Amino acid sequence: MLTWPHPGTDWSDVLADVEPVFLEIAKAVLRFEHVLLSCEHVVRLQELERELNHFAREQGLPGRVVAVPAPANDTWARDHGPIAVARDGSHELLDFRFNAWGGKFPWEKDNALNSHLSNFGSFGKTPLVPVDFVLEGGSIESDGKGTLLTTSECLLTPSRNPAMDRGGIEHLLSETLGAERILWLNHGYLAGDDTDSHIDTLARFCDHDHICYVACPDVGDEHYSALAAMEEELQQFHQADGQPYRLTPLPWPDAIHDDDGERLPATYANFLIINGAVLVPVYGVPQDDEALATLGGIFPDREIIPVNCRPLIRQHGSLHCVTMQIPAGVVTA
C-alpha cells in the first residue's frame, strides 16, 4: 500500500524530488507483489495507474497496480494504513485511529483513508474493523509468534491515548493483535523524528529469534547515550523460551542535515521486507554499502534492493514509513 504525495501535502515544494522515490518503490514491489495505490488527485492517479501497469506488463512482472482515489493529508501509509491480523484461518484489517503522532499535524483525511479504500471495494470481502485506540503501524514490530516490540516513549505518550496506562495498552494489544508478550524499550532516539521514537526506525525483527538495531559508535554524537542504553535493553530481552535474542547492529550513517541545519532521521532500520526481497533505504553516504552487506547477510534468501531515500527524510521518514503490507488475497489486481 502506497499513499501518493500530491500538491496538498507537505511535499508540495519537492514533488519533483520525492515522486521518483515513490515510483522506484512501486516498481521494485511490482516485481514481487501487487500495489494498492491511492492518491487525492484523480488525474495523477490515472497517469500512475497507466504508467505502472504498462511497466509491469512490459517487464512481465507478477504485480499489478490497484488505483483508488482517496483524500489524504500526507503519505505515511505505515501509520495510517490498516494493520492486518490472521484470525481463525482468515484475515481482518484493523482500522486503528490515527491522529498524526499526537496531533502534531493535520490528520482527518488520513484517519478516514482506510474507510475510503474499504468503501471502494479495495479490500474485497475482508472486513475492516474499527478500533477506538490511536496506534501507528510504525510503533509496533511483531515476530509473528505472539511477541511485540515497541517503545514506551511512543505508546505511553499522553497525546495518543491519555486515558490508558501501560497495563491497559498491553491488554488492548493482546485482545486486538493477539500479543502474548510485549517487549518495551525505554531508550532510543533519533534527531528529527516526529513520531516519538517509532520502533521501525530503531530495532526490527529479522526472524523470531533475531533483532537488528541502530547502533551509534561515536561517543561524541548526540545519539550515543540513548542508543547505547537501548542496546543494553535489547541484550536483556529473552525469547518466549528463555533464550536470548541474536542481535545484529546496523551501520550508523553520517549525519545528514536539511537546508536549515536540522539533523534528519536517517536510519537503515527502516527497511521493507516483501515477497522475495528486502528494500533498503540508502542515503548517498559511505555507510550505504556496509548496510546493504549487513542486511544481505541477515536475509541471504532474499534479493537486497537499495532505494535512495534521501528525499524522504526531508519530511522525517523513510522507506518502511511510506508503505504498508496487505495479506495476499485481500486485494485483487
Automatic annotation (TrEMBL):
SUPFAM superfamilies cross-referenced by the UniProt entry: Pentein
Organism: Marinobacter iranensis
Protein's recorded name: Agmatine deiminase family protein
Source superkingdom: Bacteria
Entries under InterPro entries matching the protein: Peptidyl-Arg-deiminase_porph
Record key words, sorted: Hydrolase
